[in-house]
Give the backbone structure.
Amino acid sequence: MPNISVEIPAELLADLDEHVGDDGKFVNRSDAVRASIRKNLDLLDEIDARHDRLDDDASATGAEATEDADE
């Protein structure tokens, strides 16, 4: 899995950390960030679908890229 580096304001990181750990919803920061990205992308897809902005060709290309990565 590729690593990325992101600068995050201290206040946002503190908010994130409240949801990480034994008492939190996520095991670690990486899990929290991945879940947040997935949720945000799903929301953006829903908005695009409501506004008929989803491109069938782009969806097919994304599916093909996922299949190629699995091989």
Summary: The mean pLDDT is 84. Residues 26-53 form one domain. The CA atoms of residues 5 and 30 lie 11 Å apart.
